[in-house]
Amino acid sequence: MTSTLLDEKQIDFSLFGGAETLQPEKYQKITDFPRRTVLINPISEAEHYGKPPQDPSDFLWLMTEEPHRTRRMAIMKAHPEVTKLMGYEPLTKYIVLGVVALQILTAYLLRRTSPFSAVFIITAYIVGGTANHNLFLAIHEITHNLAFRGIISNKLLAMFANLPIGIPYAVTFKGYHLEHHKRMGEDGIDTDLPTRLEMLCLRNVLGKAFFCTFQILFYALRPGIVRSQRPTPWHFMNIATQLLFDYIFFRLFGPRVLIYLVLSSFFAGSLHPCAGHFIAEHYLWDGLEQETYSYYGPLNVLAYNVGYHNEHHDFPSVPWTRLPALKALAPEFYDVIPSHPSWPMVIFNFIFDDNVGLYSRAKRLGKPSKIVVEEDAESDKAE
Question: Where on the tree of life does the source sit, at the highest rank (predicted)?
């Protein structure tokens, strides 16, 4: 009774449709919610912050177009010289060669070490997880034909970068990833989006911790369930090349070398500092309807600057080495939108913050279409 009288003095119940009691957390001030993102240009804070958290019962459904095409056109109008940043990056192939060699050498050195030993596990996490995550993002870069001028050279390099990952996926990834760019947020088409089943089953701290720990498996299995691809000769070549490499490596040095490579891939997509980018890129934060977030911190050095994610989606034809130059060219577009200050903290906040979860994604109704692995350079470059 006392609580009800106190409520009546503090709250205008005419605003709540006949409710007689309200839980304190339901009407706490918007400013009471911790802010997880930052702004380089604080002048625009009032435009972004001050909104309540997203409704956790469903995804955020939008009727608007994805934002990157509009901003790309605006930047090209304001800075036509941006086209000079586009084109392939010769450095990429040398980094890929070095990281592949590093992983093969490390696996060879651990060929007589027990997979249950601290040395094996720590090496797989620190060296292997970081190296294979770098190769994930090398394949991402190569998917946009940004390592060579030609398509075939890029496909072959992607399959080579795939070798230490242990499981063939480079060619399959390309088809799904190009659709992620062209039809971002479209339900049933953009396989980067969690399914409704994932959202309903993984709602609490334990569920979100499970998702972050095994997110590499979600990203590997979800596409085949949501939207299957039509196999091409490149798919079969990727599978055959990977299986042949695995077989030869196994026959020469035993099973532990393959255990090291696969464990490295697992760590690369699990609770690893670099793996924070999977969640940082497109989950919704701070009550905002912003669909893509960048990160400008030091871990970009290990990750082909994938943290420059707004910049990448706006201009997929700009290679990783020139993304910082793109941001510097158009600060009036990029410094005024929120970004993440830390990838590891993104993982921590995602797990423990009640105001974010697998529901924190923007979705659009998608129109059915057949998935096709792009073969012409123009479509890869444009989108």
Answer: Eukaryota
Q: Do the Cβ atoms of 306 and 140 come closer than 8 Å? A: yes
Phi, psi of 38 (to 5 degrees): -130, 165
Domain ranges of the chain: 60-382
Give which of 128, 116, 213, 120 is closest to 164, Cα–Cα: 128
Place of tokens 């088809």: 175
CA within 13 Å, CB half, 195: 13
What percent of the chain has a predicted confidence (pLDDT) above 70?
85
This prediction's pTM: 0.86
C-beta atoms surrounding 358 within 10 Å: 25
Amino acid (1-letter code) at residue 203: R
3-state secondary structure of 295: strand
Neighbours of 271 (CB within 10 A): 18
The Cα 326–Cα 217 span in angstroms is: 33
Identity of the residue numbered 102: L
Paired tokens of 77: 């109008």
User: At residue 177, what is the residue type?
Assistant: H
DSSP 97: H
pLDDT number for residue 37: 87
Tokens of 318: 């700009």
| pLDDT tens profile 64-88 | 899 999 999 999 999 999 999 999 9
Q: Tell me how far the alpha carbon of residue 107 is from its chain's centroid.
A: 27
DSSP notation for 160-173: HHHGGGSS--HHHH
Under DSSP, is residue 18 helix (H, G, I), strand (E, B) or coil?
A: coil
Query: Which class for 324: exposed (0-12), middle (13-18), buried (19 or more C-beta within 10 A)?
Result: middle
pLDDT tens digit sequence for 170-194: 999 999 999 999 999 999 999 999 9
> Among candidates 145, 175, 183, which has minimal Cα distance to 319?
145
Q: CA torsion angle for 176, 290, 299, 296 (degrees, to 10)?
A: 130
